[in-house]
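Co-fold these.
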Amino acid sequence: MIRPISISPIRIGLLSSLLVFLLAISCQKADSPDPDPGPGPTDPGGGGVVYKPTPVTLRQPANFPALVYDLSQNPLTVEGVALGKTLFYDAQLSRDTTVSCGFCHQQFAGFGHSDHALSHGIGSQFGTRNVPGLQNLGWDREFFWDGGVTSLDELPIAPIQNPVEMDLKFSEALSRVQKNPKYPPLFQAAFGSDTVTTARFLKAISQFLLTLVSADSRYDKYVRKEAGGDLTSDELAGLTLFQQKCATCHATDLFTDKSYRNNGLQVSSINDQGRYRITLNEADRLKFKVPSLRNVEKTFPYMHDGRFATLDQVIEHYRTGVQDSPTLDPALKANGQLGVSLTDAQKNQLVAFLKTLTDNTFISNRAFSPN
Amino acid sequence: MKATVTTGLLLVFVIGIAVLACDTKDTDTSFDPENTGKLRITFDNVVSSSDLKLGSTTYQNASGESFTITKFNYFVSNIKLRKADGSEYTVPQDSSYFLIQEEKPASQTITLSKIPTGNYTGMSFMIGVDSARSLANISLRTGALDPALNDGMYWDWNSGYIFMKIEGTSPVAPAAQNNAFFYHIGGFGGGYNGKKTLNNLRTVSLAFTDSGANVQTSSVPSVRIVTDAMKIFNGSTKLSIAQHPSVMFDDYSPNIANNYAQMFSYDRILATP
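Predicted complex below.
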């Protein structure tokens, strides 16, 4: 707080009550939530780093629905986002210090992992599911293919602890961050305290993830009637087809209705029961979260287990590959007919449209890249 | 409890430290100290009639299976204290979550502060962490509720706390899992759409069947509650380790939740210091 210096009795009174307030806050630290990390006075600790965070306004694209994440609980700041990015790209968060979050979530692949069908983690081990791309996470309420994680602020714990991803106890990840001399000043700058806590660690990563907003594809510009939003006749025909045949599930300009659906994939040897393992509800067997199609050109391979390498194969699945089962989505069994009917020409138009969802600004934005 | 003098002294020391640690938080003067006091509750973990010993002692359940216990943790939360006239005092939620761990003696005695003075004749509490707190902002989940610091009492793949965790070994548990058994029970009934998920929260109500716990500014009564881990096996469902060597988030788990809801009993008020 920089103010003109003038020492009046009122100012002394105000200052001393501020000090008393600060003392009270510091005594409560143990069992009270973080104070709002809004602009505030400097903390005497923290190696002389001044706590004067710069607020960041999260972009809310005009063609998006309302944000879901409660920013009032974690106001974005330049310093918080920077700390989050440092953690996101820090391989120390894995047992053998080889795997960072960014290892599997690669920017050029829409923060997915284009090389592997199944997630590929520590010691060259494989998981059972395809790495989901990261984008527009502030509009999500549940995460993972099965929706098992219900808060963005809790998400990173799972991949850090997963034995085939980063395989590090979360308490150990925190301890490594506490011991690394580069972090206390970053926490001080972001939260006004150099103490590394679970909540600050997780909220910083959330801050970075929340900034990964993808909303500048050619399609977006077309919808928002901005320059650069010209679609070809094939792409426009694909858009019309998309709205007729795909938008039930891939709804809104987020291109997902966030529901869980069985899209008729042949059950593989992994026998992943999807949403069922979270709800134990029979009706949820073989259901997976409808993924967004933003940057879909870059986020191959496709489906929860990455079984399809190309968009052509995906559409072919919907045309001819849908398997019936008790939980098959009704939209894929309309009028007793399995799948979605499309001619070859329509298939090509659909693929042409899907490629207009590629957001080159997003996948090349230096702000999201490792420093 | 057959404690040696050394263990006894150690316990007294540890409890003393715990009490001292709690005392440092009592700086709030908004309560009139004239009318509030403290209540201590000790959870004494036993197996049938003997003190629970981790790892070393072999027990036998009603299915005739022998086993040892290597870990025993549970959450106690949402404590309410009851007076003879039926009136209740609800411990403020922020200070009402406790993780009892057999391997941490200090965790087995909890101290409730700023309790209105009076004679309490019973209490109720929840085993587990209620849905509101399970979904609360991460900043509100510190201490025992910190997912990083609560001895693995948290599921990261299906967000939520494990309410009760008991692990051990038994010759009838599969060799493929080193003869170990695992019962990790949680599930707060979450779910945004459609059917709610498993709800293994249970509420326990106990009467202080003798004179009651007389909370005064000058004296701190100590309630001894006995937690019988054998009830997890021999409750309303007879749990067979051979048939169910590891129960975690699955449809069988409510049977175990119903069993652990029966494992608490009131013993006595310990002598007031």
